[in-house]
Design a protein that fits this description.
Shape: globular
Strand content: 5-15%
Oligomer: single chain
Largest sheet: 2 strands, parallel
Radius of gyration: 20 Å
Structural class: mainly alpha
Order of helices and strands: HEHHHHEHH
Helix content: 55-70%
Distance between the termini: 76 Å
Number of helices: 7
Length: 192
């Protein structure tokens, strides 16, 4: 019996960066565009939204700032506390997703180490150049956001199972986020 090998179609589910379709390339470009705008937004928000020397404080005691927010009974503090806590979590969710997407085979701990390293680097730069309060609580909250992003990516991967479908989902979310990043980057004046 003569067995002929069946021709195999090129797929986008092969590991690595070899993309074989126009759709895969377009999705990847959309993701990279969102990552660039997101990174620019993070830089603007975390490092360039304050005048150098405008604020210089360092907190190395975990949960001290959060405890201060909880114990304060001032009406204005509640809004600031909510914005600080929720904002620090939300701005690092995309980082967890994108780092996971760039390195899908990396362990969650290695991905989390990358997110934590970015957060620590930001806090060190803020402290060194006095462009924000360096606070260990910010690192903790940023890491919570990173974990949410990592878990979101893992949930997408487990649900969709094919790398091409995960890339499509990330691309759709990235395209939907592009107007948001552009709005925050170019339209809104960030005064912190």
């Amino acid at each position: 019996m003569d067995v002929q090998p069946q021709p195999t179609a090129a797929t986008d589910d092969v590991p690595g960066w070899r993309l074989t379709t126009k759709r895969a390339k377009a999705e990847t470009v959309a993701i990279f565009a969102a990552v660039v705008l997101y990174a620019a937004f993070l830089l603007r928000l975390l490092l360039f939204s304050r005048a150098p020397g405008s604020e210089s404080s360092i907190n190395l005691i975990p949960f001290a700032s959060i405890a201060e927010y909880v114990s304060s009974h001032s009406s204005g503090t509640g809004r600031v506390a909510f914005a600080n806590v929720v904002g620090n979590i939300l701005i690092f969710v995309p980082l967890g997703v994108y780092v996971s997407w760039f390195r899908p085979r990396a362990s969650a701990w290695l991905t989390m180490l990358t997110v934590a390293s970015v957060s620590v680097a930001v806090e060190i730069i803020q402290g060194a150049f006095a462009v924000g309060a360096s606070d260990i609580d910010d690192v903790i909250l940023n890491c919570v956001g990173g974990i949410i992003g990592i878990l979101t990516f893992r949930l997408l991967s487990a649900t969709l199972r094919k790398q091409s479908l995960v890339r499509t989902a990330i691309a759709v979310l990235s395209v939907l986020s592009l107007p948001v990043w552009c709005y925050f980057l170019f339209i809104v004046r960030l005064h912190m």
